[in-house]
Amino acid sequence: MARTFKGRPVVPGNVSAEALVTHSGFNTLANLKTAGSFLNKKGVCNDHNNPEIYGKLMPGKALCLPETIGSTTGGMVLYCASCMGVGPACMLFSKKADTLAVAGAVLTANWSEHPIVLVDGLGDEFLETVKEGDRIEVSEDGTVMVLDR
Amino acid sequence: MILNDELQAIKDGRQGEAMAKVLNTLVMYGEAFGAERMVKITGDMGHAVIGTGSLTWGPVFDLMEELIAGGALPKQSFTTDPRGYEKGVPASAAQRLMFKLIFSNQKRMEDEWQRMGIKDEKAYTCTAYMDEVGNIPKKGDILGWAESSAVSYANSVIGARCNRNSGILELMSNILGYVPEFGLLTDEGRKADWIIEVKCDKLPEPQLLGSAIGFKCIEDVPYIKGLDKWVGTELTQSVKDYLKDMGAASASNGSVGLYHVENLTPEAVELGESLIKAAAKTFVIDDAEIARVKASYPVTWTDDEGAPEIAFCGCPHFSILQLKEWTERFSEGLEKHGRKTVAVPTIFCAAPDVKDRFEKKYPIHAKRLKNMGVTVSGLCPLSYTSNPLTEKTRIITASNKLRYYSKARFFSEDELVDIVTGGELNGKDL
Q1: Helices B106-116 and B58-69 meet at what angle, rounded to 10?
Q2: Residue B314 and residue B375: Cα distance in Å, rounded?
Q3: Which terminus of chain A has a lower count of CB atoms within 10 Å, N or C?
Q4: Residues in contact with A49: Cβ distance below 8 Å, sequence separation at least 6, in sequence order
Q5: Does A34 sit within 8 Å of B386, measured CB to CB?
Q6: b/e B1-23 (16+ beta carbons within 10 angstroms → b)
Q7: Does B345 lie in the same domain as B324?
Q8: Rounded distance, CA B351 to CA B128, Å?
Q9: Please, which residues bridge with residue B350 across strands?
Q10: Are A72 and B166 in contact (CB < 8 Å)?
Q11: 8 A C-beta contact, residue B25 and residue B169
């Protein structure tokens, strides 16, 4: 069964991807600081403070989250992950996206060949509904469909 | 967003393609937050978050090269975050080789920074607002800085106005000389969403109090009551150091970019409780909450029974007063335990300018530190832990920021001093 949510397309785009879900703040630096280098070629999430996603693969995922937290390197870490092909396909926020996540997505939209689509304001119910591995369809107008595996 | 004539000309490409792209990036960023205009940066200097030439950040250095080639250069001088590794900090030959590899963009980055007009070769620190470094904004200045702890300090302790900008965007803001007006740049955005009532029996350690605030407020603005009971109402260097460490902790567990402290920080003194939003929630932090936060930190050492191998103090970088006071704490600890040297190799991290001044102003303390086996370095301890060959190193720290981003084990300041100077942990000799 598909559930549909409507958010605000901050960096719009059409994406089909598998969900990776965190219910607590996503610390971009802690997760992706070495992603794409020989230290973490596959782009594994490395934040040991977040057991929900620790050790899971990021590349091409629909990252479903409430907000990002932590270092102001956050936007450029997303930009680097995107340039190296290990970033998320999209970031789907239940709350309003913060400055660092928006910066990262805006940088990829303007300076990278792999823009990260960003939709925010999807509401708490979105994060209560979506499960890891669900198929996610994102439309340019900010509509997000959650399809069961 | 409405652009003035100067910015419209840039958008139209009259200063080249790179500048137009920089402008478009900042406009898109601002529009996401409802900014209706760009405002001029009024601070004298910028501050960037890019200080390590990390291998992973190659795309950033490519982008910087593209900006330089396109003539898009900063309007003003700037400081930036600390370097990743410095000679003199304990590391095996293999670890040093790995540092060279993982920071293989260091020379390239420093060359690019030089061409972009960095203050000088000592401008690498997360605490550029120290007197010895001299990047000190004025109250009310509009800034385009990055570095979470520096943004927090500039907003809260100085009363400047700065959003939590990301790396690269801080550079682009400095290049354009403008930032989009939203969030912490506006009066409304600086109002408090939370009242934090500190009801501890003694002054909590700043890193633990900040940690508790970060967990609760995430990105909201807190108005902190009850701290002036211990720290007073004057922003002495000692109080500024406390707030520096508290703010850094709340900016790493959460993303707090501004806090007000009743009767102490400039806007709280000026505007009082009118800074608190009508719908603000209240949260009480007592000794039990501080203990709960500390107990929640995971111990992620591979061998959690092993002895600590290195201790880092000064994340964010120490002030000159902290260098002096921590030297005295270590001296007293060694005397108490009947030792002459520390049992765990220890690094005190401070800005290069602060370190130089410390050595000149307090030569006896500096000599004492050296003799007891403590190294003073300008490196970033977080970057030290990026090395896969130091990942299993059993690091101890009293910094919440360092423990968050690495496998360093957190101890309170008193505990850390006791371990390092006493040579004992959990009843076992080190």
Answers
A1: 30
A2: 12
A3: N
A4: A27, A30, B298, B404
A5: yes
A6: eebeeebeebeeeebeebbbbbb
A7: yes
A8: 8
A9: B318
A10: yes
A11: yes
Does residue B301 form part of some domain? no
pLDDT at B404: 87
B168 three-state secondary structure? coil
Domain shared by B32 and B158, yes or no: yes
0.90 surpassed by pTM:
yes
Q: What angle do CA B29, B34, B36 make, to 5 degrees?
A: 95
Is there a single domain that holds both residue B108 and residue B167?
Answer: yes
CATH number at residue B52: 3.30.499
> Domain containing B400: what range?
310-429
- Evaluate whether residue B354 is within a structural domain: yes
Quick one: B150 and B16 in the same domain? yes
Partner residue opposite A30 with nearest CB, options B25, B102, B404: B404
Of B269, B295, B321, which one is at a domain's C-terminal end? B295
Question: What are the DSSP calls for B51-83, one per residue?
Answer: -S--GGGHHHHHHHHHHHHTT---SS-EEEPPP
Alpha-carbon distance of B369 to B176, in angstroms, equals 44
Write out pLDDT tens, residues B105-136: 999 999 999 999 999 999 999 999 999 999 99
Domain count along chain B = 3
CATH class of A2-147: alpha beta
For residues B229 and B275, state if they share a domain.
yes
pLDDT at residue A146, as a whole number: 97
User: For B350-372, what is the mean pLDDT?
Assistant: 98
Distance from CA of A23 to the nearest CA of B (A): 13
Residues recorded for chain A: 149
Same domain, B158 and B42: yes
CA distance B289 to A16: 43
Cβ pair B300:A48 closer than 8 A:
yes
How far apart, in whole angstroms, are the C-alpha atoms of residue B310 and residue B406? 13
Pairing verdict, β A2-6 and A15-21: unpaired
With an 8 Å Cβ cutoff, the interface of chain B facing chain A consists of: 21, 24-25, 28-29, 32-33, 49-50, 54-60, 63, 102, 146-148, 151, 163-170, 183, 218-219, 251-255, 298, 300, 386, 388, 404-405, 407
Looking at the structure, tell me whether residues B327 and B368 fall in a common domain. Answer: yes
Residue B302 lies in a domain: no
Q: What is the tens place of the pLDDT at every residue in B237-284?
A: 999 999 999 999 999 888 899 999 999 999 999 999 999 999 999 999
CA angle centred on A100, ends A96 and A103, rounded to 5°: 100
Mark whether B85 and B156 lie in a shared domain: yes
What is the spatial distance between Cα B378 and Cα B351, in angstroms, rounded to a whole number? 5
- Residue range B168-215, pLDDT digits in tens: 999 999 999 999 999 999 999 999 999 999 999 999 999 999 999 999
- Give B50's contacts in chain A (Cβ within 8 Å): 73, 76
Residue B32 lies in a domain: yes
Q: What is the CATH number of the domain that holds B356?
A: 3.30.499.10
